[in-house]
Amino acid sequence: MNPFNLDRELKHMKNTDTSVPPLVRTRLDDTYAAILEQTPAPPATQQRLRLRRYLAVPAACAVLGIALFTSGFVSPIMASSIKGVPLIGSLFSAIESDIGLRHAGDAGLASQVSSQISYNDVTFKVQESVFDGSRAAFVVQVTAPSLQQGLYDNGNDNVKLSNAIDNAWFHLKGHPQDDDSSQLDGLFYGGAGEDYPNTLVFEQVLPSSITLPDEFEAEVTLTLQGMDHEFKLDVPFKRTANPLIEVSSAAKVSNDELTTTIDNIRLTPVTATLDTSVLLNGAGNLTEREESRLRHIGFALFDDQGRRMPVLHGEGVYEGNRLDREYRYAATTGRSAYVVVKPFMIKDDFAEEPKEEQYIKELEMKIDLPQPTDRDKK
Amino acid sequence: MNSRQLATQAIKGDSAAFIQLVKEHESSLYYMARSILRQDADVADVLQETILKAFKSISALREPKHFKTWIFRILINECNSFLAGRSRSVSYADVPNVASTPGDYDHIDLREAVDRLEEPQRMVIILFYFEDLPLRQVAEVLGLSESAVKMRLSRARETLLRNFTIPTKGEISYESI
Fold this sequence. Notes:
The complex is a heterodimer of chains A (378) and B (177).
Chain A: H1 3-12, H2 22-38, E1 68-70, H3 76-83, H4 99-106, E2 111-119, E3 122-131, E4 135-143, E5 147-148, E6 151-153, E7 158-160, H5 161-164, E8 165-172, E9 183-184, E10 187-191, E11 199-205, E12 215-224, E13 230-238, E14 245-254, E15 258-267, E16 271-280, H6 288-295, E17 297-302, E18 311-319, E19 322-330, E20 338-345, E21 365-368
Antiparallel strand pairs in A: 1-2, 2-3, 3-4, 4-11, 5-6, 6-7, 8-9, 8-12, 10-11, 12-13, 14-15, 15-16, 16-19, 17-20, 18-19, 20-21
Chain B: H1 3-11, H2 15-37, H3 40-57, H4 67-86, H5 110-115, H6 119-130, H7 135-142, H8 146-165, E1 170-174
Helix pairs in contact in B: 1-2, 2-3, 2-4, 3-4, 4-7, 6-8, 7-8
């Protein structure tokens, strides 16, 4: 097809002939009924609305204010004094769901940060950041008159602070704004735990295609429900955790159907990265069904104490009869003498906790890791 | 009443006009949400929230003619929030089946090929070609600059052309939000 024909064909295509399936149709009709119920003249009959995740949101309001902005790491002296307060410690230490970030907090790998932005009495303050080359995480404390104990009053309803964030973007500073590579997808955020109800933890998994210096700044844009304003935070990152181990393993195991390979392992105290490959024996180019088959093989990673590392992220490329994938895991604490890679059949999603029967035992691999050097011992 | 008149009425609080207006865009909204979320159950959730959110904030819409851009932006934000809420549990089954093997492209039509594009490229194609939104509005919906939209469109066209002529390999991508 030549470019002109492609352009013409695309212009002739419309979505209006897309039929809405019954499941969606029912929900749409329920929604319309609910809207009519909210009007002053209620309908004669009432229908129940199935609200699985509904959050009430107020009308966007125009607000006036002055944005205040400061940025940068705090001085080493100040950082030291902050760290010296024993009851505070690192907020990363409080994160329950990510053992890697928790360890970063415990091991003093978090950088103290002083960067904040305020607008109309709402302040986002970055307190700490962690960068290990694989991911960048930061902690943000939010203060607002309408925020009490983690519940934010958006004008219509009290919602959890993490639900009150309408949108978040992570932009690498120093790249042109219209450079696609500078705007990274996949900024994850969530609450910092019960003890820090007004604090959020953000985490950006960094694509391996991007090489970042040991120090860099990101511009993070946040929008908050009920406010017609974009908060732009400058977040500095400093690499504090270098790869402890990088192993080219080429470990390969096969069964009748599949061959799995681990090409490379990189471990920092925060993140483990695994380059994997799964190949369909005897296949040529993969059919769609075969692609699906390979896509449903996951890789669980365990340390030498049998602790499974939670999966954070993965991306892959089909090449001929195989699927090459890079996985990122939250690293467990301590220096492992070896890791065990256990391929498994995915039932729900690649980050699930597999049941025993899901593992493909004949494809398990144990990979010895080098012993630490003195430099690594911190 | 045309779309603009319906939007004007809806802004004034006419819920019947609002519903009629949303119904005009139902298929488009469904198609966009489906292309991002892939699962109809998730699409139903997000469409519901989008419509309720739009209804609650329609009074803030200043320009009736921008209703479509505005509701698409809400929809995409809702999709992103939904995926963020789902966090790291993005299913392999949910992964867009993007470009695969040469043989596959012998049997698919252009719409399927668009479906197989990576999400950033797919979204600009849908908004610009299928929804006839001008570049500026596509940029507004996606929160990008116009030049970034142009770049994505160009890459999407290149991908489509390449996949119809010399397909070599495909990619999948799944990640935390």
